[in-house]
Fold this sequence. Notes:
Blueprint lengths: L1 H8 L10 H6 L7 H10 L8 E2 L12 H7 L3 E2 L14
Parallel strand pairs: 1-2
Helix pairs in contact: 3-4
Amino acid sequence: MFFYSYRENTTYWKVKDIDPLEQRSHGYCPLTPKEVGMFLSAFGYPSSTPVYIAAGEIYGGESHMVDLQSRFPILMNKVQPLPFHLFYSV
């Protein structure tokens, strides 16, 4: 919700109301969590790779996180940062 109000109040932000379905129909992001997992796997990232979720609201909802978490179980966000002991193993 913060980012929406930030977008609304920023004069140089071109698109004020972002429709994810319209964006995807034009080939733009956002990717679903499942697509992110498939993408990372296809590029050869191991399942031990930490994945930082930078989005405030998950595209497709929390139920879509199951696919990503099954491939990459080390998920974190700004509320749950990377555990200190993993800094040296990355």
